[in-house]
Structure to design on (96 residues):
């Protein structure tokens, strides 16, 4: 067994090991968050700090029928994320 296998026994252990680390959270409605994980619960409600939020929107140009993809980014100091909007959580990259 590796140390990571011993520490991780259930899915939320991955989140627990990411406390105080920057994580990536993909949400519903083409919303992505990158921020420092401060807290979470069993419903995947999370409190993130120093958050960069990116919202992607898709529109159709009426004249050319081409899809236009727009990305809007904002920075938020502290954010509460409701667990039912979370699609994916990616822990920080660990190189060891």
């Amino acid at each position: 067994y590796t140390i990571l296998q011993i520490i991780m026994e259930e899915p939320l252990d991955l989140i627990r090991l990411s406390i105080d680390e920057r994580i990536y959270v993909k949400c519903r409605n083409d919303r992505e968050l990158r921020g420092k994980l401060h807290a979470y619960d069993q419903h995947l409600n999370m409190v993130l700090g120093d958050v960069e939020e990116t919202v992607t929107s898709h529109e159709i140009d009426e004249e050319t029928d081409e899809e236009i993809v727009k990305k809007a980014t904002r920075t938020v100091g502290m954010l509460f994320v409701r667990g039912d909007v979370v699609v994916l959580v990616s822990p920080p990259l660990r190189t060891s």
